[in-house]
């Protein structure tokens, strides 16, 4: 039988994988992917806890997080396209240097 603790362990593992991706942050696109993994880990936790307590509040929070993540992807990809056209690279170390 799969219980709440199993879902929370999977959520914690996914969140730690996303956190490692954010901390490594070599590429801007990978940084966006890592934040998406972290947001999905929180969604799993919210949905599992909501189901465990027979309350829809956690599922509603998960729905709003999905909507926010979709808007973040739309804005982030637009910024990525502009930066790639201007710089020719998505390397974060290269983007942090100021050029006059």
Description:
With about 100 residues, the protein is an all-alpha fold. It has one domain: Helix Hairpins (Orthogonal Bundle), CATH 1.10.287. About 80% of the residues lie in helices and about 0% in strands. The protein is built from four helices and no strands. The protein has helices spanning about 5-25, 30-50, 55-85, 90-95. The mean pLDDT is about 90.
Structural topology:
Layout: H1 4-24, H2 28-52, H3 57-87, H4 92-96
Helix pairs in contact: 1-2, 2-3
Spans of at least 5 consecutive residues with low confidence: none
Q: How many DSSP E strands?
A: 0
Describe the sheet with the most strands: none
Structural class: mainly alpha
In brief:
The chain is an all-alpha fold. It is built from 4 helices and no strands.
Features:
4 helices, single chain, Helix Hairpins, mainly alpha, 100 residues
